[in-house]
Amino acid sequence: MDDTSKRKLNLVAFGITLWVSFLWAAIATMLFFATFDPVAIADIATFPMEVDRISGYSIGFLLFWVLLIINSSVVNWLSSSLYKSKYGSPSEHG
Amino acid sequence: MSSPINKIPVEVSLYEKSEKVYPRETAGRFQSLRSVSMYVLLGLYYFLPWVSWGERQAVLFDLPARKFHIFFLTFWPQDFFFLTLLLILAGLSLFFFTAIAGRVWCGFACPQTVWTEAFVRMERWVEGSRAKQMKLSAAPWTFDKLVKRITKQVLWISFALFTGLTFVGYFQPVKELFPAFFSLDLGGWALFWVVFYGFATYGNAGFMREQVCKYMCPYARFQSAMFDKDTLIVAYDTQRGEPRSRGKRRNDNDSDAAKGDCVDCGICVQVCPTGIDIREGLQYECIACAACIDGCDIVMERVGLPTGLIKYSTQAQDLGSDQSLKQTLLRPRVLIYGTLLSMVFIGFIAALAMRSGFQVDILRDRNALYRWSKSNDIENSYQVRVMNKGQLDQRYSVTVLGLEGASAKWGKPSEVGHSRVVKAGDIGEFNVIITLAETANYKRSQDIEMRFSETIGSSPNSIVEESRFWAPAKRN
Prior knowledge:
Chain A is an all-alpha fold.
């Protein structure tokens, strides 16, 4: 595989990661904040913090999203090297 | 001696290079239907936040107040159950309509399709027809091209920002949001979400387009599980169309070769927004927009052949089934999906109708199990949180059940026996005191019930909640 198509492949994989993580972050945010009020959570936080609800929801959503992106990216990366070691990359076999 | 050619490694790209699809404009009954669908859905989206219901916005997902207003209904986090039901309903509807008519959702109602169509139209409006767009794309950067590209981008970006602004208008009062945005007063998270959603719209509808359907949409991948031989799909009539031939060869009367009806004009490929050739059979990229049907019908009319070479059809029909539409519709899969759908729907409406107008949480006073009143009665105190989920300002009355001789009263009533006013959509926190004469028959601890009733309105609801009543150990 040449470098450009490899880069593009990675880009598509990253796009899929972003999107799928986005969906699950939205669902997690909905479930989580329907159960817990961000203002109440901020009240009992270890570090003093003051958040209004909109910031609470927004930060919560972004946090879920970032976590899911990190998780899926690492899974993507590790499992891609797994395939490589087992079957070899296409360029090695031609 | 081995051939050196075999030893040269061949570069294989796993990545399918995506060429931009320039869908050719077409007209016909399905495209008219898509237009109508697009205008109705976009109109609904942009207009709905501006509708008022009483003094408030009719549809407002008021996140800061943790309340969702939908016309005459107000949902609380406690009503999460309804959202779950709604999602199940949406899922079942998708199953039901997919089983009947294939991917109608994709072609006519999916936001991705609708906004893409809007963006394609803007592009067409600025840059002209498909041929002109392709020419412009290949042309060097002249002044004319620059003007057209900038106009297009300005249109796209404004429309995307308008979309983002409207989206946030579902969560914040839209009548304050728009003025704040245009006077550059909008800041913080509201601005962030306007730009975020606007950017997502711009990227998805302006650039990604059919790639979202091909690479990102889960539905495109699993819809085949809901398909069967009687599902409506956009299909090319291979028997009638093949062998296709065009131009000179077609008009050559000397040729004895069989001629199919397909004139191989390629219109069906050019009009396709996902850039596939429907003549190769059903493909998962097909969003069933039926542009190829309209395109082909026009050509068939022009060359004097019957229309419907590409048409909505089912696999069974293509194999010569003569089942009527009614028979096809009443097949088990459709009936099962339909029954489930109507059951959940009826349940949803019933639950909504039976939803109580308020909710009560009782917390026992933690400081003392009981206390003595001035007149030597036993008193228990309770903290009561009343959520008024109805649309009227409300007062509540309280009575005690299950304990003979006991009476309940509000800690600080404004009217005898009635709580203070709890405004519609508000929470009131009160004290309830239950009094029992010392002479009454009681145990150290016993279950009691409190009945709370609305006192205002034509059909007052009431709720019974359980709690405990503590008393001193009996001295006999």
